[in-house]
Every structure is written in structure tokens, then in C-alpha cells.
Amino acid sequence: MSAANCPECGAAVGSGDRFCEQCGGELGVRRAALPELDPATAAACASCGAATFDGDGYCASCGELRRPPDRASADLGMVQLVTDRGKAHARNEDAVAAAVLGADTVIITVCDGVSTSEDPQAASGAAARAGVDACLTALAADRAATDAVMAGLEAAFQAVREVSVAAGHNPSCTYVTAVLRGCANGEFEITVANVGDSRAYWLRAGGASADPPSRRLTVDDSWAQALVDSGAMDETAAMRDPRAHALVRWLGADSQHSAAETAVRSLRVRGPGVLLLCSDGMWNYLPDAGDLAGIATTAPPAVAARNLVDYAMHCGGGDNITVAVAPVGQPGE
Fold first, then answer.
1. What is residue 154's three-state secondary structure?
2. pTM of the model
3. Terminus-to-terminus CA distance in the chain, angstroms?
4. Contacts with 116 (C-beta within 8 Å, 6 or more apart), sequence order
5. 8 domain-assigned
6. Whole-number Å distance between alpha carbons of 232 and 238
7. Confidence at 39, pLDDT banded by 50, 70, 90
8. Which of 104, 152, 219, 237 might form a disulfide with 131, Cβ 3.0–4.6 angstroms?
9. Residue 301 pLDDT exceeds 70
10. Greater confidence, 37 or 97?
11. Number of folded domains that form the chain
């Protein structure tokens, strides 16, 4: 058994080991979660300039709660993450988490805190992290992608319920997740599920003639979608309704729904293209898959992710904005 080193602590590990015996870190897995919650990584306090925070994120000098940077990003190679506070909100209530397992599997979750609930940022952060962790554990145990997605969703539902600290305290969020896996014949399989109105898209380089063409992969759990499904309005008209973004399903202690009610969808694709997950702060300004493809597939993935967020900012930045871009066949390079 050949020796290697743990990427976290540097300890020697065996080639067949899944976990480092020294620090317990997973081997062969890269992960990221934004906004970053670790006080040890905080920049200087915005109020007094001090650089020390306690374990709960409060400044050790003036007591001000640490505010994450307006924009944060992470590069996991196979997926690029960017989240931005936008221009209208005082804080970022979105969250995104992702993990890369081996050389051909990506797990992504994007959550959007429900602003009318208490501590929505706590709900979104808990759901995104718990969802990716549970999905990763299931995939590492060789469970099917559909089962892994459901395991992640069940864990996210429970994590958000546990954020609630008292009766009537109901932090809530949306949830969209995807597993992207390489197949033996050069195809890739995308498996998605969602609760609420954060979305997943397949964006194909090459325009409308590409097969399969760019398309939205999720169906919103929203008032607007209900109007469309009933035939009362088309999507453009429904989105003008002041109740358009009212959710009919969400994650929260006050939610009457469960993971079991959620549809899991799969699609086989070939590159070049991009799997995009985003909050409504992005798709509000560019809901059409073909229009999104015009930005997401015409630059290297890290640049494309920034360009998408910048587009939403230039359009007004009226909400928190989060995107996760996972290239298939490296479009734009």
C-alpha cells in the first residue's frame, strides 16, 4: 500500500484509507460552503477594526456581530461557487455548499433564506451544509444518485427544524440540489431535486440546435408556478403578480411538507455545457435557459460564475445572488 499525505493535516495515510487517522478528515473529497461561518477566517470588524472574534462570531473588542464579506467565492475545480449580498439586503441570507468526490462526481446545494422568517440565514446555512454532507455520505456508500439526493434532502429538512429554538421561531429556506456524475460512455448524469424556487439549469453550449438543448431542470414551488400549471397565466404574466414569489413549499419548522413529497429528476447530457444552480436573485433577471447559456457557456467557469453574478448586480441586485457553475466538457476554454 503506497503512502500519501492528508491534505488537511499532512499526516501519512494509506492509499486505501477513506479518513485520516490523525485529524479524521475525508480523503479524496474537496468541499466548500459559503458564506464562510468560521470566525477564525473573519476579516477585521466593520465597526472597530479589531481582528479577533469569539466562537459565535462576535467581535472581542466591541461586541459587534461579524458580518460576512459582501461577496464570497470558492473554486473546487469541477464547480465554481459565488454568493453576493446584492444591493438591497443588509445581509446575505443565501447559502451554497458543494463537494467533489473523486474525479467525476460533484454535489451542489443552493439555499435561499425566507426573509419573512426569523434567522433565515441560519436556515439556509444549515440546510446547504447538511444536504451536501448526507448526500456525500450516501454516494460514498455506493448508493444510487437518486437515493443520495433524497438522503441529502431529508437531512436538510431535519437540520432546518433543529435551527428552531422555540415555539413560533421558524427559520425557513428554499433548497435545490444536484449530483453530477460521469458515465462510462462519455455522457454525464444530472440528478436534481428542489423545494421552493431556487433553480437548476442545464445550459448547453452551441445554441438552440444542441442536444439536449438548454433547459430548466426544476419546477418552482411558488404561487407563480401554480398559476402557470393551472393554465391561468403564462410564465411572463404570472411573474408580474405581486404574489409570484410566495412559496407553497419550503424547509422550516412550520412546514407541513416532507422530503418524501419531492420529485427527483435525472437527465443524461454530453458536453460542452454547464450545470447551473442559482437562487432567485439570479434568475429573476435572466429566467430563460438560453439567455443564461449565453453568459455561462462563453467563458471559463470561474469567469462565467462571476459574470452571472455581475449581470444580476448590474440589473439592480435587488436580492441576494448565488450561483454554482459546474462545467461539463469545459465550455468556454
1. helix
2. 0.86
3. 37
4. none
5. no
6. 8
7. very low
8. 152
9. yes
10. 97
11. 1
| In the chain, beta strands by DSSP E | 3-5, 12-14, 29-34, 71-75, 80-84, 94-101, 105-112, 172-173, 175-182, 188-195, 199-204, 215-216, 251-252, 265-269, 273-278, 321-328
Grid-cell match 457553475, residue found: 325
Range of the domain at 127: 19-63+70-328
Using the CB atoms, write b or e for 81-96: b if 16+ within 10 Å: bbbbbbeebebbbbbb
CATH number at residue 200: 3.60.40.10
C-alpha cell at 243: 404574489
Whole-number Å distance between alpha carbons of 124 and 106: 20
Coil, strand or helix at 43:
coil
DSSP string, 283-306: HTT---HHHHHHHHTSS-HHHHHH
- Residues whose CB is less than 8 angstroms from the CB of residue 246 and which lie 6 or more positions away in sequence, other chains included: 222, 223
CB burial of 273-286 (b: ≥16 within 10 Å; e: otherwise) equals bbbbbbbbbbbbbb
| Length of the chain (residues) | 333
